[in-house]
Structure formats: C-alpha cells, structure tokens
Amino acid sequence: MMSFPTPPDVIRHIERTSAELVARAAQFPSSILADVAGRRGALSSRIAPLAPSMRLAGPALTVEVRPGDNLMIHAAMAIAKPGDVLVIDGKGDESCALMGEIMVSQCMASGIAGVIVYGAVRDTEAIRALGFPVYAVGANPNGPTKLVPGRVNWPISVGGVSVQPGDLVVADADGVVVVEPAKAPAVLEAAAKKLADETARLEGIRNGSQLRPTWLDGALRKAGVLAEGESL
C-alpha cells in the first residue's frame, strides 16, 4: 500500500495574490468588492476594526489556533512576508485575548499589512494609537496560553467564510472581504465599473437629475406591483 508524506503543520511557502492585484484592490471599498463577487466572501460583522479609519489589503497568511492559545500566531509572524495579512481562526472565542500591543508592534516592524482575528485582542487603546489595522470580534484583558499546536497556511474558516492561504483580503470600516486569487482580476474589473456607475448615480442624486433608480419601474413590474407599461 502506497504511503504519502503528510504535509507539515507549518507550510512556509505559499502562492500569494500578486502585489499588483493587491494595490488595485486597495482602491475599492469592501462593499463594492462584495457586491461584484456575488455577495459572498464577506466575513461576519462580528469581526470589526478597532477603529473605523483602519484599512488593509494583502494576501492571507492563515493561522488556526485552539481557543485561547496563540502559539501558532507567533510561528506565523516568524515566517510572514511584508504585505501579508494574518487571518487567524480563533474559533470566535472571546474568553481571552490572542494578541496585544507587543505582538502588534512586532507585526508592524515586520511589515505585515494587518491582522484579522476571529477571536479577541487586548491593549486596544495602544493599538488604536499605533494605527495598525486590527480586526477582531471583541476585547478581553485575559492573556493567552502558548502551549497547543495548530496550523499555519492551511485552509481555515473565519466568520463563516473559507479562507485559503494567499487569498486576497480587503478590509475597511464596513468589514472584511476575501476573494480567491483566480477570480481577483475579473472581480476588480467589475468593481471598477460598479464604482463608476455608483459615482454617477450619486452625482445624479446630488444635482437632482436622477432622484430615483432607473431600474425601479422594471423591478416593480417584474414583482407584479405595476402592470406592464405602467410607471410610478
């Protein structure tokens, strides 16, 4: 019977979304990207920025930990590349913090682009003062253990969304969106068109030339609210 080598718990080398795609994606709001990606890929609203001004974009470096233990986050930080976004599956646990000011300071010094934690953090005032993008489900002053093995750069589930190592991650005040690298070029092209359309729509509202959407009558007819040929 053939045997196959077992992949290591820490995978050091992954295929990342390109820097060019990351730079393009950073120009769009998360809401635009979520819409054109089929309204999928948006993490639970429980995962929110520590400050509304926080923004990030980059390839995902995925981390799976046992609730309340941050050993594998330290391992991930040791192998992260500048521009990476740590995406941490902490199982949504809020009983203790997985990261605080010291670890965030190390992330900043290493050139990491930001951190998404499906769990809690602490030292939130200090992190806000640093301005480093951190998204979490809450805060808790309890510290974590550093005892339990986990995985780095394996597929994880965070906030109801499957995240693969290297996926494109974009986050702002509205939340976090994850896009598969293979779909990113088409999503970004669609995002540019949608942003242009919405900009024109807003201009029409502000100057009074288009105070209701052009699709409204058609949608009402399709829903049976208006008869064929009838308009509001």
UniProtKB/TrEMBL annotation:
The family database entries (SUPFAM superfamilies) matched by this protein are listed as:
RraA-like
Q: Which cofactor does it need?
A: a divalent metal cation
Q: What is this protein called?
A: Putative 4-hydroxy-4-methyl-2-oxoglutarate aldolase
Superkingdom of this entry's organism?
Bacteria
Query: In which organism is this protein found?
Result: Massilia terrae
Sorted alphabetically, which InterPro entries does this protein's record hold?
RraA/RraA-like, RraA/RraA-like_sf
Instruction: Name a Pfam family for this protein.
Output: RraA-like
